[in-house]
Specification:
The protein is α+β, with helices and mostly antiparallel strands. The chain has helices spanning 15-27, 42-52, 83-93, 107-122, 125-130, 133-137, 147-163, 177-190, 198-208, 211-217; strands at 4-9, 31-36, 59-62, 78-81.
């Protein structure tokens, strides 16, 4: 089977590229990483639009994907955007026991993980504006949180504390891709020295030590 390809934002500031690359690293499947400059060049955007429907990154290319009928997709490839769709697809294509799980085995926990992933993609906009991913990966900021961001912070900490039971370092019985996304959102506070309960910051730091996340962070250029 030919290797997968992941097209990703070469600035390394995208939380969605982070999600997709961590998923691939956790599954331990071979893939080729192709960074793309933003704004996306017209010829690259046209190619993405033709194959993936949307001219966006991250985009996963599976050169050997087959349809439900057994016939190969056009050109023998599947081009897929949207990070959550990518991780869901990978989880189905590379299931246990041959590969680690990306989502919890327990149905209720799996549903909760998907709820967390959807919420993180559609909410907390004030916090995301005041504490962009660049402030996590590259350049911390010192500005105070706006009222909107403070409300988002309170909601984020409430959810994190409700989900973190006891002293375990994962949201559920075992690690899931929701841990990576929640940790990144929490690091918007932790990396910028905002007030965070020690239990929550310990969880975020523990996630930050995973090999898959360290692999992503290694691509980020260091600032002078």
């Amino acid at each position: 089977m030919a290797d997968l390809t992941l097209y990703a934002d070469q600035t390394w500031e995208s939380p969605w590229a982070f999600h997709a690359m961590v998923a691939l690293e956790e599954l331990r499947v071979p893939y080729k990483l192709e960074p793309i400059r933003r704004p996306i060049a017209p010829d690259v955007a046209a190619r993405l639009r033709e194959h993936a429907l949307l001219p966006k990154v991250p985009c996963l290319v599976d050169p050997g994907a087959q349809s439900e009928s057994g016939r190969l997709h056009s050109g023998g490839e599947l081009w897929l955007t949207e990070s959550s769709a990518i991780s869901e697809y990978l989880a189905e294509q590379y299931p246990p026991p041959a590969h680690p799980r990306l989502f919890p085995a327990n149905p209720q926990q799996r549903a909760r993980a998907r709820q967390v992933l959807s919420w993180l993609r559609t909410s907390l906009m004030g916090l995301r504006e005041d504490r962009p991913t660049s402030s996590v990966f590259m350049r911390p900021v010192t500005t105070a949180l706006s009222d909107k961001a403070l409300r988002d912070r309170d909601e984020l900490l409430h959810v994190a504390q409700k989900l973190l039971a006891g002293t375990r370092e994962t949201l559920f019985d075992d690690w899931s891709i929701a841990d990576a996304d929640l940790a990144l959102m929490l690091m918007r506070l932790v990396a910028n020295n905002d007030d965070v309960p020690e239990r929550v910051s310990d969880y975020a730091f523990a996630q930050w030590q995973r090999q898959s996340i360290r692999k992503y962070l290694a691509h980020i250029p260091t600032t002078p």
